[in-house]
Specification:
The complex is a heterodimer of chains A (about 350) and B (about 325). Chain A is an alpha+beta fold and about 350 residues long. Chain A is about 25% helix and about 25% strand. The chains are: A alpha+beta (about 350), B alpha+beta (about 325).
């Protein structure tokens, strides 16, 4: 149950070790070279010396979460967000804190106690705290240190007609795609890089790209889907069950147009559904890969994901399978000379 | 002057929004090929031309891209939705015309706004006169980009066109390449891509060129229009030697050096402090272990509109200054 293990692992930026462990375990029967770099990026490649265009495929291990900043006298934990979290989604959620996965609750004032004006506005981040059931500061300090991380306590579950819900599909679904892709044999150098600290500024991808020095970059993501309301079609970004999402532009990068065209052609030739993302928002690892050294043509391929950056996100398993298919097929297209390197 | 105006017209009216600079690169290549020792296109599309000489390596940068849009969605009725390429003010866009690489033209329109509601790009669309989605898809695909569709207007000394930012600097580099006689430095002329979305082409080309000095050429704002910004730069008073902008504090020795050359050659110049905005030197000076860098700018009114205005005397003086700079000993850092 790869999707279960990889989404339930805790891995706030800077503390991705559980995710690294799941990835190493998953690849242990494959004869691959696996290294962890100084920042914690996991770089996976073939043990053989291969010729041809070098492809770096990145998926980030880190998820959005919280860092404990202080413990107050009543034993409640004050925290700060790590990555972009909407304070509106935090209230009344269960979390786990630190290495020992201490259970906690993000508390809130019951509606009965709220003044009428308080009911009108969401609670700001500063008013929130994590309750770990400690009676005072001293007791809390036995279990928690300032600097510990907290993540949402969400279990992976499949539901409905082929859907799955879990925390952190952004970007564990990308990690899962990359794992599946790395299990296949290629005749050109393919570097799978599981990056760190994407959510706080694409930090791992930049240094990993410098190390790998690729000719082509591919970022795998769980990307925004908002196909659930009567929003105008041009604002929904992407749709579940419509296949992998190709991105031409976001705030960090303009994808290489020939690579996007090759991906689209490859999808059509292999009967894989695909879609284009139609909202320009956010950025991801491909921005840093693109700007590495003398410049790297890049593309983003993503699994459409509802409710990213919240305690629970939703994907469709067909989109996952089709994304794996497309990325593998794209590598084979490049392998057979489909993309000319400058 | 007639020849120069013709070259300016050819280069500034060419199609080349951010990410789609290859046509501009082709035009420039034709102009400069006989005058340089080598020429290449790098992985992101930067055009890099080298004029060899004994001496330190200098990177000169002018960006080929212009602001524009990229199509993100085509609706059932054939209207196009789009993402901005660079800093675009929706109010400036409304009612203007754009053109795609294949010559397809369109008009920027807007949904009806509620009273007091401000115009945003998400409310805007491009009307290419298509009957429906199918008809539109014959002409334009998702991922295609468009720039402003306006001819150059000759007002005498003053010229008005889209994309003066930064094709006018491309023209200055083209002419510098043609006129350069006895350079004291090895000149790497880089016509960069994707400046308007974050100095992206300059960042990667500076890494591969690995220069000893950097100079970018770009347009800058002016303080010479009615109730405009407070800024000591005017049209026609000469190219500027930049002191700072949001992306760089120019190297003091480069500022002094550029001023000295201008004074020695009796070329008029203005000192420039730009309070908002940046240019390619912002990326060049932070490359590898640091590159002492400066900027020369051309004063330009109505930047990021389809009617950017420059003074041709600033261009001729800019060509002269840039040529003389490359024919001088660069300062020891």
């Amino acid at each position: 149950m790869l999707l279960k293990y990889i989404t339930e692992a805790a891995g706030v930026a800077g503390d991705e070790y559980e995710v690294r462990d799941v990835i190493r375990e998953e690849l242990k029967d494959h004869d691959l070279d696996i290294k962890t770099d100084i920042l914690g990026n996991l770089i996976v490649s073939s043990k053989e010396e291969l010729e041809g265009p070098k492809i770096m495929i990145a998926a980030h291990m880190d998820e959005i979460g919280m860092m404990i900043m202080s413990i107050d006298n009543s034993g409640l934990l004050k925290f700060r967000p790590v990555g972009g979290i909407d304070p509106k989604v935090l209230v009344a959620k269960t979390v786990v804190v630190g290495k020992e996965k201490l259970p906690g609750v993000i508390g809130s004032k019951a509606i009965h106690l709220q003044r009428p004006e308080e009911r009108q506005v969401p609670l700001p981040m500063e008013a929130l705290y994590i309750d770990i059931g400690a009676k005072n500061k001293e007791e809390a300090e036995k279990y928690v240190k300032v600097g510990d991380f907290a993540v949402f306590d969400t279990k992976y579950e499949e539901f409905g007609d082929g859907y799955a819900k879990a925390k952190a599909f952004d970007d564990r679904i990308g990690c899962a795609v990359l794992l599946e892709v790395l299990k296949e044999k290629y005749y050109i150098p393919v570097y799978g890089v599981f990056t760190v600290s994407e959510e706080i500024g694409l930090r791992g991808a930049g240094v990993a790209a410098y190390t790998v020095a690729p000719d082509i970059g591919i970022a795998l993501e769980g990307t925004l889907a908002h196909d659930v309301t009567d929003m105008d079609d041009h604002l929904v970004s992407s749709k579940l069950r419509h296949g992998p999402v190709l991105t031409y532009i976001d705030l960090s990068v303009i994808s290489d147009k020939k690579l996007v065209a090759l991906a689209a052609q490859t999808a059509e030739a292999n009967d894989i559904p695909y879609q284009y993302r139609n909202v320009m928002a956010g950025g991801n690892d491909s921005g840093k890969i693109n700007q590495s050294r003398g410049g790297v043509p890049t593309i983003e391929i993503a699994v459409p994901t509802r409710y990213v950056h919240s305690p629970v996100s939703v994907i469709h398993l067909d989109d996952f399978a089709n994304t794996v298919k497309l990325v593998k097929a794209l590598i084979h297209s490049i392998e057979s000379g489909g993309y000319e390197i400058k | 002057m007639k020849d120069l105006k013709a070259l300016i017209e050819k280069i500034v009216t060419a199609y080349g929004p951010t990410g789609s600079e290859n046509h501009v690169a082709e035009l420039i290549t034709k102009e400069i090929e006989p005058y340089v020792d080598s020429i290449r296109i790098d992985p992101l599309g930067n055009l890099i031309a080298v004029k060899k000489a004994e001496g330190p390596k200098v990177m000169l940068a002018a960006h080929m891209d212009e602001i524009g849009i990229m199509v993100t969605h085509i609706d059932d009725k054939g209207f196009l939705r789009f993402a901005p390429l660079g800093g675009i003010n929706p109010n400036v866009l409304l009612g203007t015309r754009c053109v795609f690489a294949n010559g397809t033209r369109g008009v920027y329109g807007s949904e009806r706004l509620n009273p007091g509601e401000s115009l945003t790009l998400a409310k805007m669309y491009i009307d290419i006169g298509a009957k429906d989605k199918e008809d539109a898809a014959q002409k334009v695909k998702i991922g295609d980009s468009a720039g402003a569709d306006y001819p150059m207007v000759d007002l005498g000394d003053r010229l008005v066109s889209k994309a003066m930012d930064d094709r006018i600097a491309c023209v200055i580099l083209i002419e510098t390449i043609k006129q350069l006689k006895n350079p004291k430095v090895e000149s790497h002329f880089v016509f960069t891509v994707q400046e308007e979305v974050g100095l992206r082409g300059a960042r990667t080309s500076a890494y591969s060129v690995d220069p000893d000095y950097g100079i970018a050429i770009d347009v800058t704002r002016t303080g010479d229009t009615p109730k405009g910004i407070t800024m000591d730069v005017s049209l026609g008073e000469g190219p500027t030697v930049k002191v700072r902008d949001s992306s760089i504090l120019c190297h003091p020795k480069m500022i002094a050096f550029m001023k000295e050359v201008a004074e020695k050659e009796e070329i008029p110049y203005q000192l420039e402090i730009l309070e908002a905005g940046g240019t390619d030197s912002g990326a060049i000076h932070l490359t590898r272990s640091g590159v002492p860098s400066g900027v020369m700018s051309i004063a330009c009114r109505y930047i990021h509109t389809p009617s950017e205005m420059i003074d041709i005397n600033d261009v001729t003086n800019g060509i002269k200054l840039m040529t003389k700079i490359l024919e001088s000993e660069f300062p020891k850092i």
